[in-house]
Amino acid sequence: MTRFADIPKYKRKQAVVAPEIAGGDQGLYPFVIVGSGPIGLATALDLARKGHSVTLLTAFDFIASGSKAICFAKQSLDILDRLGVGERVLDKGVIWNVGKLFWKDQPDPIYQFDMLPVRHQKNPGFVNIQQYYVEEYLIDALEAMDNVDIRWGNAIVDIAVHSEGATLDVVSDAGSYQMEAAYVLACDGSNSTIRNAMGLSFDGRVFEDNFLIADIKFTGADADQRPSERWFWFDPPFCPEGTALLHKQPDHVWRLDFQLGPDIDRAAVIKPENVEPYVRGMLGDRVQFEQEWYSVYSFQCRRMDRFVHGPVIFVGDSAHLLSPFGARGANGGFADAENIAWKLDKLLRGEAPKALLESYNFERVMGADENILNSTRSTDFMTPKNDQSRAFRDAVLELSSDYEFARPFINSGRLSTPTPYYDSPLSTADGDEWRNGPQPGFPCIDAPISDGGNNGWLLQQLGDTFKLLHFGANPPQSDLPIIVETDSRLAAERYDALDGATYLVRPDQVVAARWKNASAGAIDAAYQRAIGNG
Length: 534
Hints:
This protein is an alpha+beta fold and 534 residues long. It folds into 3 domains: 2-18 and 26-93 and 129-203 and 301-370, FAD/NAD(P)-binding domain; 208-298, 2-Layer Sandwich (Alpha-Beta Plaits), CATH 3.30.70; 448-533, Glutaredoxin, CATH 3.40.30. Helices cover 29% and strands 28% of the residues. The chain is built from 14 helices and 29 strands. The strands form 7 sheets. Strands 2, 3, 10, 11, 12, 13, 21 and 22 form an 8-stranded mixed sheet that branches. A hairpin with a 5-residue loop joins strand 28 and strand 29 (511-515). The radius of gyration is 24 Å and the shape is globular.
């Protein structure tokens, strides 16, 4: 479609002539996914792997490149593992766990942190990889399946909700048509056509500061000599009264991010001759590089009031929008995708009531609120709006060089971590005393285990279906699949199960219930609650 001429392309895809155009009405689709970003693709792949026929519509007939997400957190890597593409992401990406913080012209960091404080897990704290690679890997997996229909170049222009589901108006170069769907998963991004067509609110804060992204490709001999770490500066000489950020990507590409302030000429600042002083100020005069992608952005922290509107369910940026500081946008979206996929699967199979979908709204609104809170606090610390805020920030930075107590107050972007679902309607509260271990509503913790005599990982064993995880001898009676773990002391310690314990784990690897001595009746009651029958 010619209207996307200004979007950089990574790979072209063949536009699809829809069967509605070729052969007429196709009846009611159980669900339709809209949007070919990483969240729409992950949702599609999850449901396809669960055996459903998947139809995904996208206005694009290409995979876009340019400046997009690059930081994928451990939870997202665990999800990508369960989708079968995690190894490709790890093989291509840049693994990092360490972040360093600098202030003004001080050459040494005032503080550094580790994004994987719990060791001996399969996946690292973060992997940096260009978004278009992640999309490519997801698309490759989808295109290898017989139950997937990706309609490239088919754009949603309107939607009407009714008692049977929703009617979608679609346009393509081959013609226009309508589709009927029982459910619509709106993964169509921050400017969601579906959200706008339904007239739904999208409230929050808009921040006035502008930031320059310079994705550059090293061409000199030192391209691989810099460490794979996140470096962040407050008020550096090359960006006075602002902040700057440095991230390594694959293919000798680095992302440089500079705060420019509210009043700038957006067209002028991305000219190569104006970007170069920032790059050389950060990396030195001798660095050899070429332009990969330059852009200017400002950001917002917003969300919809609700994510579930009858048969229409909003997922990812269509539901919530965040500043990039903390890498919470795409990572929060992957958590949305996994959460809705298993619930819609259960509903479509007739194994759960429609009420289960409401728990998606409860849990992922909670996730969005936590991400927005952290993102807003990061932005306020990084860009103080008055003298008092700046005085506080500078005092924290000055003390942090020598005093450990001050370091937790530094906020250069609280990096993405899973959201615990406190008081989830799907969780059964503890009835026993526990010293530690993941509580109901909390994500499971990985650990090395023995898998049939071979080394393995606990999260891989849990997979993406309901499971019972039992430690020790004498597992309880249940119709649910059960994993009995007897060999790993580390896993038992992490689950407070040295004396035995049983966990009910959801398909998104969130704890639904746990017992020191589980009974068949208690397990069944907790399972019924976890699928919305509680």
